[in-house]
Write a structure and sequence with these properties.
19% helix, alpha+beta, Alpha-D-Glucose-1,6-Bisphosphate, Chain A, domain 4, single chain
């Protein structure tokens, strides 16, 4: 049965009420910006392991037709898929766990598993802040497997003065329920920050942002408001 048919009511999946839930920072944080590359593009990428620490593996690969890197993160979390989804949908709190996230808000809710949000990333001088608009969809593939796709919707809002709109970005999550309150997570992201950012500088720091973000995720999913999220399709 699909996730859409198994939710008891909208509020339990509301991104606001969901309750299961440095100076060189620019090149670091841009890897977290979520047009989505198809999943096959991620699977065909030649990944290079760049960091393996604290149970978190970070890989980099070359994005086709771009000088910038693709990133993949693999880890096991002490959290059910419902807990992680609760965190990801708590858009107002992204600044608490996404590296250098400045502000974010939901723009449109199409249904409980399909929504559009805006986010802004703080960037140190002399670079301009970036912002992006993302369309997130959540899909329950099977009883134990959930995917999340994030694709660019750059034209949903006018651009803001002094902020560069990121146009080419996308992400994909595979969340596999391992049982006993654990999930295996594979996160892949492709991005092009736009503007005058040297690729060599961005690529030099692509590891720090995803690694520290997932360290924070590991801590955040222990909070009761996420751990106690209730879904018919998956409960803690």
């Amino acid at each position: 049965m699909s996730i859409l048919h198994k939710m008891k009511n909208y509020n339990r999946f509301n991104p606001y009420l969901f309750s299961r839930t440095s100076n060189l920072r620019l090149p670091i944080i841009l890897v977290l910006l979520s047009s989505l590359l198809p999943v096959w593009a991620y699977s065909q990428t030649q990944w290079q392991l760049r960091k393996n620490e604290d149970g978190i593996k970070v890989f980099s690969g070359n994005a086709e037709n771009s000088e910038f890197k693709m990133i993949k993160v693999e880890c096991t979390l002490d959290a059910t898929p419902a807990t992680l989804i609760a965190l990801l949908k708590d858009i107002d709190k992204k600044h608490e766990w996404v590296y250098s996230s400045k502000e974010s808000e939901v723009l449109k809710i199409n249904n409980p598993t399909d929504f559009i949000f805006y986010a802004q990333v703080a960037v140190p001088w002399p670079f301009l802040d970036r912002d992006y608009i993302a369309h997130m969809t959540i899909n329950q593939v099977s009883n134990n497997f959930v995917t999340i796709d994030v694709k660019s919707e750059p034209n949903k809002l006018p651009t803001k003065q002094g902020i560069i709109r990121v146009v080419n970005h996308g992400a994909h999550w595979d969340i596999n329920d391992l049982g006993n309150g654990k999930s295996k997570v594979v996160y892949t992201v492709s991005f092009d920050p736009g503007g005058a950012i040297p690729a060599w500088l961005s690529n030099l720091f692509v590891i720090k942002a995803p690694f520290e973000t997932f360290q924070t995720i590991r801590t955040k999913v222990q909070q009761p408001k996420y751990r106690n999220a209730a879904f018919d399709f998956k409960r803690a």
